[in-house]
Structure formats: C-alpha cells, structure tokens
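Hi, here's the filled form for the chain we discussed.

Project: internal
Contact: R.S.
Residues: 310
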Amino acid sequence: MASVSLRPPTLSLHPGHSTGAHTLLQKVFSTSRVSDRTPSHGPFMAWQAALGASLTAMVQTRRLSQLPLPLRADQEDKSSPKRTLPTVSAEDLEGLHRYLSDALGEPIDLVGTKNRRSLISLKRLESGILQVRIQEQFALGGTTVNRALVQWLKNKEKNALEVLRQYAATFQVLMAAPRPRFAHPAGVHHDLRSHLAEQNRLWFSDAFKGRIGWSRMNRGQVRRRIRLGSWSEQHRLIRIHPALDSESVPSFVISFVVFHEMLHAMLGAEQRGTRRSVHGAKFRELEVSHPDHDRAEEWIEKMSDTLLSF
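And the returned structure, exactly as it came back:
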C-alpha cells in the first residue's frame, strides 16, 4: 500500500544504537561512574560553566516558539477571526471521483476520510479495482491540486507530492490534533515524575515545562525496533515505553532516557539547509556529557532482545 503521510519526526532511542567513540564530541566532564541518582558536584559545576550559558540561551529562544497547538483559549489571537474547515459535500467527492477515474483511465473506488496525517493511500483490491483513500479536503483543491493527485497516483512524481503537501498544510493546521494516549506517570515499579523533576533541577534549572507519562503499548507484539522515549512538542508531553517500568531496569537508565527527551524539548531541531536534524551537533554534545550516558547505552544495547520482546 502506498501512502502520503505528513508525520513529524519521531524522537526515539533504539536498542542497538550507540553513538560510538567516533561520534562523540568533546566531553566537558568525565563520564566515569557516579551514583545512580546524583552526579558529583565537580562534574556538574564544570558542565554548567562550559555549556550552561549556551543551553540557557537556547532554552529562552525555545520558550518563545513552543506554544502548544491548538492554542489554549488564553493564547488565541483575538484579533483574527477563527477559521474552520470548509464543509465537503457528497457532490464534491463525487466530482473528484469522476475526475480521477477519467484521468487514470480506469474505474476506482474513492473513499473520503477525515484523517489528519495519513492523507492518501491506495491499494489494488482483489476485484482488480484500485481503491484510493483520500482526505476529503482534497475534493476542494481545484485544478492544480487535482492534476497533482493524478501525477502522484500515476507516477509518484516528487513535484506533485510537494503540491499536495503544500495544499495539505492549509487544512491540517485547522484540524484539531488528536489527544495523546499515555498512562499515569506512576508506574508499577518506577514513578516518572521523580526522574523528570530530578533531571529538570540538575540540568535545566527547572526550565522544562511539560508533562510525562508512560506510553500505552500492547504486549507480545513482534518488534524490530522499540521507541523507549518520545517527545511531542504539540502536547508538551514526554512518553516513556512501559518496557522500562520493570524492577530489573536500573534507575539510571530511565533517568537518561528522560534526559534525552528533555533535550529534544529544550533544543528543538537544527536546520541544515533544507533538512531538519533532531540529533544535531549541539544535541550530541550535551547528551554525551550526561554522567549516565555510557552505562545507560551499554545497558540498552545489552538488553535490546529483552526490550524488543516486551
């Protein structure tokens, strides 16, 4: 099944992934073994002295740009009229159905959806009919969008995809974001609130403002990778995989994963030309400076099979 999906990059840790010595930037202080919960005073002061100023500056910049979407009532721009999604009628969808069928030279099964991210998908049914599932707002796109749809459906043309992305952006911003699914931060064996509070106090001067909780995951699935942590800027939410809510998981592993996601929240993405990097040079520099970096990644690497079998 082919699809067009405008999903933000997932911020995650992967078992088996290690930065390695060849990617380590200059370490501001030694990552020698310290206590599970509190870094020694000397390394902490060195870290603050060398990197604290730049991190604080970036944090202040992010504070100005990280209003959650959709905006809360007290953050809305009162000067602008509230925009809503235009209504798509059955006649609009039928018109698009006839246009695409004629342009493709074959009958199709067109299904209109209200999806916010997975906008277009297609598959050949057992009957031989091509089924096209499409966000219904494309029925209002006009001639340029219709032509781009045909070009993408026929040949997956990149220029056509860009036209579709640009048009999608005009209605995606008006759609209510789905509420994030997450469980209470107090797990069976670990309470994420204490980890968040500690990392926030030690490394971010309590500048992080957001929530944390356990992801809702089904057990017993076959996995090739696992996302141990994720950060949603839109919902100001850190989610940690419940595979880590185990008595066998060391406290320092959870603290480091939480720290990793907090870095994403505070630094955002680096722009490299036309590309955005969520693990840029500054991110890596700060990440490897954490005193639990080496042993946490070592533990994740060692336990990757166990984590994947959750």
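Let me know if anything looks off before we file it.
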